[in-house]
Every structure is written in structure tokens, then in C-alpha cells.
Amino acid sequence: MKRITLLVLVLALVFSSLVFAQPAAAKFKIGVLAPAVTHGWVAAVAYHAEGRLKELADEVDYNIQTSNNAEEMTAQLDDLMTWGADAIVAFPQWEGMEVPIQRAVDSGIIVVNFDIVIDVEGIYRVSGDNYDMGVQGAHYIVEKVGPEATVVMLEVPSSGSVSALRKAGFLDTVAEIAPNLTIHTYATKFTVEDGLKDMADILMRHSKIDAVYSMDDETSKGALQAILEAGRTDIKVITGGGGMQDYFLLMPDYQDIWVQSALYSPAMVKDAVDVALAVLKGEEVEPVKIIPTTIVDRTNYQDFLDANSPY
Predict the structure, then answer these.
(1) Complete edge-to-edge strand list for the sheet that includes strand 211-214
(2) How much is the average pLDDT of 78-92?
(3) CATH architecture observed for domain 130-263
(4) pLDDT at residue 230 above 80?
(5) 28-127+266-291: CATH topology
(6) What average pLDDT score do residues 292-305 get?
(7) For position 5, what pLDDT does the model report?
(8) Counting C-beta atoms within 10 Å of the first and last residue's C-beta, which end of the chain has fewer, N or C?
(9) CATH 3.40.50.2300 residue ranges in the chain?
(10) What string of H, E and C letters represents the secondary structure of 136-201?
């Protein structure tokens, strides 16, 4: 009897040692390619990507690289391939990334493009809806100041399809809901400094403006400063776009102006990371995921505050 009991104990010990000696499940390797900080919004992309990847630490090893041009990003892509990346979330802001990204896809790496559309077969993409941002901006302005108001539109031709789509969404919607709206269009850039400088000049050109259709939070922040410094009280609405924390915090300070942002949040990159992981797990995923537009103003800005965000 003692021998049987001893044998049972030995077998139990052997079994438990085998169970606990099993190696941990291998983690997926996900790399991130992003531009270096050329704009506050871009800085927040890497911040949100890393935040999500840290949350997935039990399943994922990650490697985040930032670059200043296409050549540097291509070299970093090669580094991620050598590292053994199973998937790469790429924000290919630089032209000329089509060939190296296609090479990564052809090698079997899952590639999820964030925001930027490029001509590569077999990639996934997560993006906001630039056209709908314009649509929402038009509805917001007409709702606040009426269908026959005078509006200044601040476009940014240097941003390519971003500005073109936001402008098209705005003008197409105006044509439908407020064809008598008077629109004065000026070119600027996605910076606070350019918003301030260009809006100051515009204010001298026009004695009466009801609303400003701005496409970017940084531009809008500068434009607001120009409006304040000029002592103008005629402007009742200024829109924005992006997800800039400093801009959100200004919203309650302007009770006579509706300060708005069409959220095109850098936090969308979290969705890109999630898409990459889902594909690696064998889940069925749509090749393109468009994040709907959310409007932020003084009524709900507190829901979108993140004290740790660099943007």
C-alpha cells in the first residue's frame, strides 16, 4: 500500500513539473513606423501607439521607430524585418514608401497603414474621415450663424488630400444646405504661428465675419489669438480639426464664440494596432476601417482630455 501511495505521489510530482515547465506562449512582434515630430499631432501618434502596445504586453513585443524622411523610414522598416516583426503599423507620411512597404507585405508581414493612403497591394488601413470633417463643419457653422452668413475658410493646400477632402466636404454640404453662404478662402498652414499671422491679415481685409472654417486645431488656436488681439466681436464660430489638448482647454474660455473641433484623433492609431493583432490571431478583418467624425466643443470637451498627451 505504501508503495502504491509513493508511486502516486511521484507521478503527481512528475505531472506537475511537466505542466509548470511548459514554456510561455510566444508573443507576436509588432513594429511601428512613424514620422519624427514635425507637428504636435504626429508626436501623439507614437504616444498613443506605445500606450496601446503596453496594454497588450501579455500578447505583444513591440518596437517603435520614428524617422525624418523616406530613406530613414525605409532603413527602419528593414530593421523591423530583421527584428522579426510579424506585423507593422506604418504611418508613411513621406513619399516613396510604396516599394519598401510592398516588399514587407510580399515577405509575409502584416502591414496596417495609419491615416495615409498609398498604392500597395495587400495592406490594411485605419483612417479618419477627412471628407466628413468638412461635412460636419458646414452643418455646425450653419446651425450656429445661419445659412446666409459670411465665412472665412482657411485651407492648407500644402497638406494635399487632407485639405482637399475637408474642403470638398465643406463646400459640397454648403451647396446643399446653405447656397447663399458667402465664403472667402485663404491659404494657411497647420501651425499656431501661421494661423495667427494669416488670420490677423484676414481680419484687416474684412470688417464683418460671422464664422471661420478652419481645418486644424493648431491653425485655429493661432486664429483665435488674432481675433482676441484685434478685439473682434462679430465672429461667433471657429472650427478646428485633430484633437489638440490645449485647444480643447480654450473652449470654455470663449463664451461668445463657439470653438469647435472635428475630432481626427491621433488615438486612432490604437485601432491600427488592434487591427494588426486581430489579423495575426487569424480573425476576419475588413481591409479598411474608417473612424467616424466626433464633434468637440465646450459642451463635451472634458470627455476628451488627456493630461499626458503630447498634443
Answers:
(1) 182-187, 150-155, 211-214, 237-238, 258-259
(2) 94
(3) 3-Layer(aba) Sandwich (3.40)
(4) yes
(5) Rossmann fold (3.40.50)
(6) 94
(7) 56
(8) N
(9) 28-127+266-291, 130-263
(10) HHHHHHHHHHCCCCEEEEEECHHHCHHHHHHHHHHHHHHHHHCCCCEEEEEECCCCHHHHHHHHHH
